[in-house]
Design a protein that fits this description.
The protein is of the alpha/beta class. It has 3 domains: 93 residues, Up-down Bundle (Four Helix Bundle (Hemerythrin (Met), subunit A)), CATH 1.20.120; 185 residues, Rossmann fold (3-Layer(aba) Sandwich), CATH 3.40.50.300; 131 residues, Signal recognition particle, SRP54 subunit, M-domain (434 Repressor (Amino-terminal Domain)). The chain contains 21 helices and 8 strands. The structure holds guanosine-5'-diphosphate. The site of guanosine-5'-diphosphate (GDP) has 18 residues, from helix 6. It catalyses: GTP + H2O = GDP + phosphate + H(+).
Length: 445
């Protein structure tokens, strides 16, 4: 699921990340591409519109423009919005404390309803140690009841004995009675499917619902059918009232539009995913994990979160001001190195610095700043006098020997550090040349 969407969004974000400063036009252009990507993934149009507008509002506002990492901030906003669209939190099945819990499975014929019923029952019986009884109410499709019995045997789950000629409401009542008498924790009712939304069958399911008052009415929908699945879900929601959705065949759907639209259109949470024909191909639906799967960049999201925690906005602004003036001394280098230590790695910090492009980053990375090196460099810097840090050109041969002695390093290492500082300083001057405009765009002037 989501492969094509992932690819499209990956391209959009790659472009964004390569830029230091972002203008409103940059954000708009990126959002146009996000919109196309979502539409191609078969996400319902109203959902796409809401989504893009929501992201735009946040992105154009202070959040991005004041951020030290505009490109990544946009990605984080898209991610957060995606999680919201998908339903924010993972919703588990409603299991009551006063058993038996009644779970009614509804959906179109062929959506994978009976298989999903057995999958859930197997999980509840196994991992969650619940005593589960399944009953098929499908008296229309020949052999439907037998199918559930066979699946029950495979899943080691009890099924209600079949009484030929018995009608759905009567079967359901008998299942509930057995459930209560025999101490079952959960009773699962597999209702009859239909090829399309059909009034008569809908009335039948409504009658079962009224007779059994299910705690969970789980709609099973086939993700491969995209928008149709969303329409089916809306119809069921409207006519019957559903409490959750299980999306099946996510193993076969490369677009994932159904998953993205479902929650927004029905207001009902997706609770489970069916990812294969086997009975153990059942997954919980976690909006945050799905979102990072779609964006293929959970790392970036946590990185931005980490940056927000560790990079002090004031410090960043101070640094930006210095950069703007082309003033960058060894104290700044020291505070940068300290932040780098907190952040865990040069490359992540470099990504966060405004005005940094890929080539410059690669160059800095070649300098191979690892943890122990950073420690040594900080030792050298703290062995310098404040005057030396403010005016690095004071550091001549004799001072170098003193600093090396004080920090337990060598003169060669001091030279390397000073060279690195000069390099960084050159870069800051370049950023200065980029002009006030570039910095203003980020709200840092
Ligand atoms: P029902 O008519 O809604 O009860 O559908 P069934 O449970 O009989 O399933 C129809 C077909 O879909 C069967 O061949 C199942 O093995 C298959 N199926 C069900 N769920 C999944 C799934 O998550 N992935 C895949 N690939 N196939 C599934």
């Amino acid at each position: 699921m989501f492969e094509s969407l992932q690819e499209r969004l990956g391209d959009v974000f790659d472009k964004l990340r390569r830029r230091g400063a972002l203008s409103e036009e940059d954000v708009s252009a990126a959002l146009r591409e996000v919109r196309i990507a979502l539409l191609e993934a078969d996400v319902a149009l109203p959902v796409v519109k809401d989504f893009v507008e929501g992201v735009r509002e946040k992105a154009i506002g202070q959040e991005v423009l004041r951020s030290v990492t505009p490109g990544q901030m946009v990605i984080k906003i898209v991610n957060d919005h995606l999680v919201e669209t998908l339903g924010s939190e993972h919703s588990a099945l409603n299991l009551t404390t006063t058993p038996p819990t009644v779970i009614m499975m509804v959906g179109l014929q062929g959506s994978g309803k009976t298989t999903s019923c057995a999958k859930i029952a197997m999980r509840l019986t196994g991992k969650e140690k619940q005593k589960v009884l399944m009953a098929s109410l499908d008296v229309r499709r020949p052999a439907a009841q037998e199918q559930l019995r066979v699946l029950g045997e495979q899943a080691l789950v009890k099924t209600l004995n079949i009484v030929p000629g018995e009608q759905p409401v009567a079967i359901a009542k008998r299942a509930l009675q057995s459930g209560a008498l025999e101490g079952y924790d959960v009773v699962m009712l597999d209702t009859a499917g239909r090829l399309a939304i059909d009034e008569e069958l809908m009335a039948e399911v409504a009658a079962v619902r009224d007779a059994t008052k299910p705690h969970e009415t789980l709609l099973v929908a086939d993700a491969m059918t995209g928008q149709d699945a969303v329409n089916v879900a809306s119809a069921f929601q409207e006519k019957l009232g559903i409490t959750g959705i299980m999306l099946t065949r996510v193993d076969g759907d490369a677009r994932g539009g159904a998953a993205l639209s479902m929650r927004a259109v029905t207001g009902c949470p997706i609770k489970l995913l069916g990812s294969g024909e086997k009975l153990d191909a059942l997954e919980d639906f976690h909006p945050d994990r799905i979102a990072s799967r779609i964006l293929g960049m959970g790392d970036v999201v946590s990185l931005v979160e980490k940056a927000a925690e560790t990079i002090d906005q004031e410090d960043a602004e101070k640094l930006a001001k210095k950069m703007q003036k082309g003033k960058f001394d060894l104290d700044d280098l020291a505070s940068q190195l300290k932040q780098m230590q907190k952040m865990g790695g040069l490359s992540s910090l470099m990504n966060m610095l405004p005005g940094m492009n890929k080539a410059q980053m690669a160059k800095m990375q070649n300098a191979k700043l690892d943890d122990s090196l950073v420690k040594r460099q900080l030792a050298m810097l703290s062995s310098m006098t404040p005057k030396e840090r403010a005016k690095p050109e004071l550091i001549k041969a004799s001072r170098k020997v003193r600093i090396a002695g004080g920090s337990g390093t060598t003169v060669q290492e001091i030279n390397k550090l000073l060279k690195q500082y000069q390099e960084a300083n050159r870069m800051m001057k370049k950023v200065k040349k980029m002009g006030k405009k570039g910095l203003m765009r980020q709200g840092m002037s």
